[in-house]
Amino acid sequence: MIQLARKNIQSLKPYSSARHEFEGKADIFLDANENPFNNGMNRYPDPFQEKVKARIEEVKGISPKNTFLGNGSDEAIDLLLRIYCEPGQDHIITLPPTYGMYQVSADINNVAVKKVNLTKDFQPDTKAILKAATSRSKILFICSPNNPTGNCIKRELIEALIQQFKGIVVIDEAYIDFASDESATAFIGKYPNVVVLQTFSKAWAMAGIRLGMAFASEEIIGLFNKVKPPYNVNTITQKAALVGMRGIDDFKKNLTKIIEERKQLEELLPEFSYVQKVYPSDANFLLVKVDQPNELYDFLVRKKIVVRNRSTVTLCEGCLRFTIGKPKENQLLLKALKKWAKKRIPN
């Protein structure tokens, strides 16, 4: 996919860090102008996060050669735009309602956005997407499970778009661990234009370390590494990721609990008369259509419960988004919703 990249990126000579140039083992490092007095943080981090990638391979079965790590998935999104989109000329395609950073990153990089709304059941309209695409359509973003709707995009629709879209197809799987669907990483060896984004922020409970993953062909990963800052993932983040990935049992236990709590809320929320619909979810949140969403949001804030008001988002009119919390937190939410049922303003 090098031929799709901007011409200046194709010819770019990347910055070569001191640690990147050195191979092998050494006892004395006098190459990077670091402070020699060891406090655990005086040395630059591994620029390619080799230990973390090796552990990811053990957990996910994906080769380090097909893995890029960045400062959250947002860095990977930004780099994709910088690699493939000529500012003021090219554009990306997004599928509203969807994750807002695609638009923000495009705006920052002076890249236009073509929007093709999802269907009423929150699935992509493949014909409309392909009709909207031109030779300047460089990236198609598909969020699955989708944020804010929570559902997975049908696998056959994703593959059809990968096959027919002429640019890069990015499948953002920030919530994939909460879903029963197979990851789109299975497409990487089959199609050269696929990039799959995942994160440590959700199921791995490490939002605070800001570590995102991008999986793609070696060619695309090579472009990521060419454009990224030399030391884009700091030492503390790398160490925290390695520690976090030791706790596979806790990871699975907490994941199971969140899914159980999600199912329970899915069953209980429709009992409230003002709840119009609870949308099916493959993520760690529920999109809920309610009467008087703004008033309910304000009421919950007064009860010191913060949810997300999505009532002004395309196809999510009248909806609030509830993240699945701990059992006690979910019970307090339900308790507050019961009080709202008694206090709310009649329609």
Widest sheet: strand ordering:
1-7-6-5-4-2-3
Q: Rounded to an integer, what's the Rg over CA atoms?
A: 22 Å
CATH level-3 fold name of the largest domain: Aspartate Aminotransferase, domain 2
CATH class of the largest domain, anyone? Alpha Beta
Distance between the termini: 55 Å
Derived structural class: alpha/beta
Q: What's the SSE pattern?
A: HHHEHEHEHEHEEEHHHEEHEEH
- Uncertain stretches: none
Q: Strand percentage, roughly?
A: 5-15%
Describe this structure in words.
The structure is a single chain. This protein has 347 residues and is α/β, with parallel strands linked by helices. The chain has 2 domains: 245 residues, 3-Layer(aba) Sandwich (Aspartate Aminotransferase, domain 2), CATH 3.40.640.10; 95 residues, Aspartate Aminotransferase, domain 1, CATH 3.90.1150.10. It is 36% helix and 15% strand. It is built from 12 helices and 11 strands. Strand 4, helix 7 and strand 5 form a beta-alpha-beta unit. It is globular, with a radius of gyration of 22 Å. It starts with 6 loop residues before the first helix and ends with a helix.
